[in-house]
Amino acid sequence: MATLYTQADSNTRKTWLYLTVLFFLIIFLGFLFSYVFERQEILFFAVILSILTSFGSYWYSDKIVLAMSGAKPIEKKDNPELYRIVENLCITAGLPLPKIYIIEESQPNAFATGRDKNHAVVAVTRGLFEKLDKTELEGVVAHELSHIGNKDILLSTVIVVLVGIVILLSDWFFRIRFFGGGRQDKNSRGNILVVLGIVAVILAPIAATLIQLAISRKREFLADASGSLLTRYPEGLAHALEKIASDPNPLRTANNSTAHLYISSPFRGKQTKNWLTKLFMTHPPVEERIAALMGMKI
Fold this sequence. Notes:
The protein is an alpha+beta fold. It is 66% helix and 6% strand.
């Protein structure tokens, strides 16, 4: 029977597989579009823009996310209990103490961001430490510290950039194809490539987004496992996830750009569990995460 440990190993392998697929998708689109339009600068400008975007995301993504979420920094005197929990878990995990931010929202939730373990941030809502007991709060903090230790905060930035390149190339295809001309081959090979280009430009952004969401879901399972190893008490995180998912309060600052960062989806409302809905979910179903946690043997 699969355990959360074996699932974590499998998810790590799948994450690298998804990343490889994304890289090859970008290369394929670049080759296809360059041939159809006879314009090599498409790929050239995409690479340049991706480098600039990567640089900006690496240095400023945490500041942007914190501003969008309305998070405010706190000091130890503002919430000694929360600080002690973070400090103790950081010692256990061998991580530097991250900056701690508070989001003035009643929905219990949390996320981690930053470019590396030395420049990391853990943000929690006020509802999180008001509605969860100590073991549950420890479970959530350990989960977020695991994202830092597993370098997920950097991975999420890389994925966003790669998906952005795919969407950018697709957008350029439409603009140049319909307004700037392109290869006008009359032979069947040329026509087939043009058709392939049109199909690719429609499907590529969807495929890239699905890969992004799949990686996000896989990393959540991995952080659940890693966090439980820190606390040695997976039930604490399981109970926390149950409380967070059942809380009816909306997160007013939630948006599609940052939803995948939170420990649980910040959006509220009934969600069906059919296969199509699961494809576009930013997080694994809470029931599956809780079942995996309760099955852990530590």
